[in-house]
Amino acid sequence: MAPCPCQSGQPFETCCGPILAGTPAPTALALMRSRYTAYARGDVAHLARTLAPEQRAGFDTADVSAGMNSTQWLGLEILDTEAGGTDDSTGIVEFVARFQAQGQTRALHERSRFRRDATDGGWVYIDGDTDVQPVKKPGRNEPCPCGSGKKFKHCCGRT
C-alpha cells in the first residue's frame, strides 16, 4: 500500500482515499489533509466538492488544473488545530505545504477555516489566511523536505 501524500504515516487507502472517493471527512484536519492530497494527486473534483457553497462560484477548475500540472507537492506539516473535531461545527487548521513550481521551491503557510456542512455532516473549506515564501533548495545530502526520510538527491532532487 502506498503512503498517503498528506504524510499522516497511514496508507492512502485508509487515510485520504475514502474522503477523495466521497466519504464525508470526520474532522476539519481530515478534510485539510485530503485537500492537500487532492492537490498532490490532481483531483480537482474533490477540491471543488469540498469548498463551502459560497466559495464554489469563484473556483476556476481549468485554472486549478493547469496549476496542478506544473506543481510538485513536496510535503505537509501541520502546525496547529483549533476545534474541528467530530463534535464541533467549526475548526481551524494551520499548516505549511511545500511545493516546487516554475523551478522554485516555496512554502505555503495557511491558517484555514472549516465548517461542518449541513447537508451531509462532513466538513467544507471556507477560506484561509495565506503566505507563500520562497524556500532555499536543500543541499543534495540534506533531508528531503517532503518528509520521506531520504536524502534530497535520492528523492525529490533527482533530475
Give the SSE map.
Blueprint: H1 17-20, H2 28-41, H3 44-49, H4 53-56, H5 61-69, E1 71-83, E2 90-101, E3 104-116, E4 123-134
Antiparallel strand pairs: 1-2, 2-3, 3-4
Question: Summary?
Answer:
With 159 residues, the protein is of the alpha+beta class.
| Mean pLDDT over the full residue set | 90
The shape is: globular
Low-confidence stretches: none
Please tally the β strands and state the result. Answer: 4
CATH class annotation:
Alpha Beta
Instruction: Indicate the proportion of strand residues.
Output: 25-35%
Main sheet overview: 4 strands, antiparallel
- What name does CATH use for the topology? Nuclear Transport Factor 2, Chain: A
Please bin the fraction of helical residues: 10-25%
Strand order of the largest sheet: 1-2-3-4
CATH architecture call: Roll
Distance between the termini: 26 Å
Q: How many separate helices?
A: 5
Whole-angstrom Rg: 16 Å
SSE order: HHHHHEEEE
The chain-level structural class is: alpha+beta
Whole-number count of domains:
1
